[in-house]
Amino acid sequence: MSRFVVDTNVAIVANGDDEEIALHCRFAAIELLMTVLRKGVIYLDSAGEIQDEYRRYLNPKGQPGVGDRFYLEILNSHPRKVARVDVRRGQNGEYDDLPQAIIDAGFDPSDRKFAVVALRANAPVYNAVDTDWLEEKTTLEENGVNIVFLCGCDPAGWRNDGASEC
Fold this sequence. Notes:
Layout: E1 2-6, H1 8-15, H2 23-39, E2 40-45, H3 49-57, H4 66-75, E3 82-85, H5 100-104, H6 112-121, E4 125-127, H7 131-135, H8 137-142, E5 147-149
Parallel strand pairs: 1-2, 1-4, 2-3, 4-5
């Protein structure tokens, strides 16, 4: 089974609440989440920080969107669909396994949990429209964090049909 670490913005984009997001981007997010649910393993931290973030932005009640359905499946999953990895924080509050270069670059502290889980799970991080991943792409990749940009690497293309390759 393929391994996935999915930034929350992918599920948010799949829900389609932001009408300014380009259709190609939304379709890429939906396709990824469907692939994860069909034949993948989603990696989360054992402390529950990623799941807590999903809970803040996604809703498994009522008539859910695709991103919400993804979250519901995470909540109701069995061991073959969700794997949890231990990530430890040092006394300074930073993740022990996160390379110092990523911290020194100022990579968004709220996204560091995804990066460290990706490193521990040897899985790529999937991103849709979060520029933090794009701004620190070189530093992250030089330090072993592989990123898949579902919507391309040009933020202007995220809001129109001008998708770009990375």
